[in-house]
Protein 1
Amino acid sequence: MDWFPSRDGELYAEQVPVTHIAEQFGTPAYIYSRKGFEEGYKAYKQALDGWPHLICYAVKANSNLAVLNVLAKLGAGFDIVSVGELERVIAAGGEASKVVFSGVGKQRHEIRRALELGIYCFNIESEVELERIQEEAEAMGKVASVSVRVNPDVDAQTHPYISTGLKDNKFGIDIKAAPAVYKRAAELPNIEVVGVDCHIGSQLTTKEPFIDALDRLLLLADQLREMGIILKHLDIGGGLGIAYEAHEHPPTPADYLGQVRERLAANEHHSHLEIVVEPGRSIAAQAGMLVTQVELIKQSDHKAFTVVDAAMNDFLRPSIYSAWHGIEPVVADSQKEELLCDVVGPICETGDFLGKDRKLKVTEGDLLAVRSAGAYGFGMSSNYNSRCRPAEIMVDGNQVHLVRRREKLTDQWADEMLLPEG
Ligand SMILES: Cc1ncc(COP(=O)(O)O)c(C=O)c1O
Ligand SMILES: N[C@@H](CCCC[NH3+])C(=O)O
């Protein structure tokens, strides 16, 4: 379903023409569709209906408070990787009791805050962390629920920078070493073992790596049962991809989770396991786009550049992963001449591009939409080249809401100070 439909050659965000939003709030701007997030979440909800589950939206994908609030209202849980994300969840009305805390470097103050708020569980990624959580929980007179994030050594067949489940990756505990870690966890007085977890990578477009990882997790669950450790849940992480390009056909949540359910239902020792998922991209990506204005067109003998007012500081994915995102004029004009060009920003880096070798009918001043930018868009933005980060806007039917104002120059240096005189 497209939350940004084209009507008579003009792009809309739900029921509002994108040109109106750009006129009101300027560019570059992220525009989100409330329905997009809601439907993204509901696809998981429906896929897991009738099976005990917890859907923990991965906050890193898009952590705007309005986004978290929309999902919290639907009952979502959250996957966090820092105390900052935890406080955002709470500020947005999310429930700590539905939070799982992932990440390889949880600091003691973060562990304490998570314990204080009573999160559902820590996905522990090393033995050092297990001992740390035990110490902090003991000092606070609490019991910490933990799940061990295992590294199943499965190739996610995605971009190497967003693959996380190979033995060379920093994430999780080698699945072969996991039983010993569980044994230790079960002995610790302030630790309760509740589950097993894995997250093998992001933007997976086939089910096979997920199912391979699942099978390895289930073997581990069997091994643990023989040791007397009975798991309550199975956290299969996030990672489900989306179709950035028309030729990509990732499985739907129903298709993927349908197969997971079949696998669990087939074995009496697995059929009690609650399913926890941590989707980010598959909920957020298509619920947002980045709108930018063409500053000028630069033509040389052998190449044309469409220079826009958004840059890698606003949207980093093309620069760091060579990620492909659809780029289209907000108002189509068939009379214009088609130009083969790179769409680039004004930043002083060769890697500052939003798209390469695109055929676009554009002229100076036109608006362009960079599609599927709702995930890992604003969250990865920066002030590089002293550029202000863009505004974020959420459309709800025919209503337009500013959910983060455009940064001001003075915001950028508000926390900086000069050296004393002399
Ligand atoms: C532990 C963990 N869970 C969930 C996610 C969300 O992944 P995705 O956005 O691919 O669904 C990530 C990011 O890859 C992650 O590191
Ligand atoms: N930031 C990445 C995904 C990394 C996911 C975090 N584990 C992206 O834009 O695709």
Protein 2
Amino acid sequence: MKTCQILGVPTQSGTSERGCIMGPTAFRIAGLPEILQELGWQVEDVGDAVPAAMPDVSHSNPAVRNLDAIIAWTKSVGERAYEMAKACDFPIFLGGDHSMSAGTVSGIARHTQDLGQPQFVLWLDAHTDLHTLHTTTSGNLHGTPVAYFTGQSGFEGFPPPAAPVDPRNMCMMGIRSVDQAEKRHVAEIGITVFDMRAIDEQGIVGPLTSFLDRVRAANGRLHVSLDVDFLDPDIAPAVGTTVNGGATFREAHLIMEMLHDSGLVTSLDLAELNPFLDVRAKTALLMTDLAASLFGRRVLERKTRTY
Ligand SMILES: NC(=[NH2+])NCCC[C@H](N)C(=O)O
Ligand SMILES: [Mn+2]
Ligand SMILES: [Mn+2]
């Protein structure tokens, strides 16, 4: 049986809105571990990560908030993610704000490097999260993990990622809120971005298939990072950074179903769930259902199509 380990990463220091600390609990109450078991996985919930000791740090950009806590989380989550990748077939990380992914992706990529394979990342988000400590104006470090784990400079005090992800191995979908500094950066480093306009024009199947083909051709391992604000706020209100015009229910499920059928996904973040902002748990339940689709739940049994 395929094995999966689930780790809670209750970070909220990367945001200015409190509540993401409750995210892992909400996913557990929504029944995520049991649902994956029913789908035929051997599931082990390994509890919640705790941050490493906080370093004594300051930064020249006065906007930066909670740098000590984010460095401490990045260190410990990076180690936990690396151990999980060695110990099971499929690590899942329950956030927690998106600063969690500085740790999760860098730990996962370190293991992928040990295997001698390239790491690919699918980033499903309204935002590119590509700031550095120097370019962020909000100071909220959940806006920075992609720059960190792709090895960009500007992360003084952080442990350097052992295996920086090649930005050309990254695909972003759902993007619709990008700051000036991020726009320059994204073009420069060569990430493939399907913004919301591209999705409107081309749909999901073409863009996602072309990326999955690249992952397969390179014999890569694929990490998926799903931010709640990828989804439209009408269906997913439980996030501190809602942006109108997000992915629909069907678009999101189609992505998850295609990812499952591809057989390429080897790890997952469920990020930014803020249960304090939810409406009768509908966002927690939707995110859980999306994970179920990624793990093989489908409406009707049918022959697997390979994308
Ligand atoms: N993970 C997220 N929700 N990130 C939102 C970041 C928003 C904005 N770009 C900022 O840096 O403040
Ligand atoms: Mn994000
Ligand atoms: Mn976002």
